[in-house]
Amino acid sequence: MNTSSKMLQHRLEKRKDEITGRTVTQLTSLPGNHHHLYFTSSSFTADNRHILYISDTGTGSPNLFKLALDDGTAVQLTENRDGYMKSYVYYDGNPYRGLAKASPSFAPAADKLLYIQGSEVRLLNVNSLEERVVYVLPERVMTGFTHLFSDGRYACIPYIDADAFEVGEGNPFGLIRDNVKKEQLSSHIVVVDTTTGEILYSFSHQGWVTHVQFHPHDPNIVLFNHEGGMVEQRIWLYDHGAITRVRDQSDGGPSLWICHEMWAGVGKAVIYHGTRGVPNDPAMKDSSREQGQIVSFVGYMDTRDGQCAELSFSPEMTAYGHFTASTDESLLVTDGIIDAYSIHLCRMDWQRLGLDMTLLCRHNSSFTVQDVHAHPIFSHDDRYVLFTSDAHNERTKGNLYLVDLNDM
Fold first, then answer.
1. Phi, psi at residue 177, to the nearest 5°?
2. Which runs of consecutive H residues, i.e. helices, occur in 167-221?
3. What are all long-range contacts of 136-144, with beta carbons under 8 Å and residues at least 24 apart?
4. Model pLDDT for residues 352-371, shown as the tens digit of each residue
5. Out of 18, 43, 68, 190, which could bridge 36 as a Cys pair, Cβ 3.0 to 4.6 Å?
6. What does the pLDDT look like over 54-86, one tens digit per residue?
7. How deeply is 125 buried, as exposed, middle or buried, from its count of CB atoms within 10 A (0-12, 13-18, 19+)?
8. Phi, psi angle pair for 69, to nearest 5°
């Protein structure tokens, strides 16, 4: 049982956005690096009154916290003192020790939070702080983003042999990708029943898998990726034992790049985005290949018939970023593409390929490290947008921000 109950008090600071005039509330004010959970997992509690976030409180050892949106009070949920563990995105971390910062995944309806501490996969009740180990990782593996099923019962954990991360000097993202391809390494995906600790099912797939996402209503369906920029096929689906391609990339050639897949429409569709012409992959910015015109697009694949609708942006809209869906599959929020320093709401007409863009606010994040990617997400009632930025902190150290869409 986790007995930690340390309380912190942040000062909520409201600002008017310099362009739109909307009120943007900075939620964190204390020293340290603060950022919300990865956007494939909600950070909002079911009642939209609290958010979960990761912070090192200036110590270098990150922990998980629960922050009240009405007064800035934060409760410390974990007791990590061992820094952060080496994993996908966090290549400079400690091997096999500390909090895996990519690992937290939250099931709001169940008030349960999944995270990895060293070799232990833990499940925490964010109200009672009761905690237990639900799975122990094999020796010498590196993990990525996990996922917790909506009712908190099943945990999906991807990992790859540590040999994949044994690379030389340079950009680790690209080097690991190339190493996995050269050595034809496979990733392993394990789905664990958190009530019994038993493995519900597991499978392996050749390639570097770093994102996994349960279908919203079926734990036997998992959306997963092959990481690494210009991979031959980015998005895959495990469906009751069968593995198939999502948005078949075989006709795209080397100029097609796709990224950041996520469920939409309660599992009726998959949202993704990418570029044609030249990859928008940060690991390939220094590529010496001849570069043609880049066209960014956002896509929607209907999981019932596999049909895709892809809407292209104008040629100048190529900033690296992310798209996140609301409860309404036609409403997205993005922190890039349209503008590198702003957050936009995108109202999509997938049938007619129509798009209305609305500037919400500036995020002004440097995007220089993973922790300060803005990663905007909606609250469960689509009223709020939460994001991270280092605009009012030391560069590479984030703060949390909230925009109330009802507040004009």
1. -55, -50
2. 172-183
3. 140/96, 141/188, 142/86, 142/87, 142/88, 143/85, 143/87, 143/88, 143/100, 143/102, 143/103, 143/116, 144/87, 144/88, 144/89, 144/102, 144/209, 144/210, 144/211, 144/212, 144/227
4. 999 999 999 999 999 999 99
5. 43
6. 999 999 999 999 999 999 999 999 999 999 999
7. middle
8. -75, -15
Cα→Cα distances 101→41, 53, 116, 251, 358, Å:
13, 10, 8, 36, 32
Q: For residue 298, which of 271, 320, 277 has the smallest C-alpha distance?
A: 271
Amino acid at 187: S
CB atoms near residue 330 (< 10 Å): 16
* Residue entry with tokens 């099923």: 149
Residue 286 pLDDT > 70:
no
**Contact between 100 and 145 (Cβ < 8 Å):** no
At residue 127, what are phi and psi to the nearest 5 degrees? -95, -50
The closest alpha carbon to 329, from 309, 343, 315, 312, belongs to 309
E-strand spans in 249-383?
Answer: 256-264, 269-276, 295-302, 308-312, 323-325, 331-334, 342-349, 354-362, 377-378
Percentages (nearest 5) of helix, strand, coil residues in the chain: 10, 45, 50
**What value does the mean pLDDT of the chain take?**
93
Residue-wise pLDDT for 209-253, tens only, equals: 999 999 999 999 999 999 976 688 999 999 999 999 999 888 776
Tokens representing 394 are 């030391």
Task: With beta carbons less than 8 A apart as the criterion, state whether 326 and 333 touch.
Answer: yes
Name residue, tokens 């560069």: 395
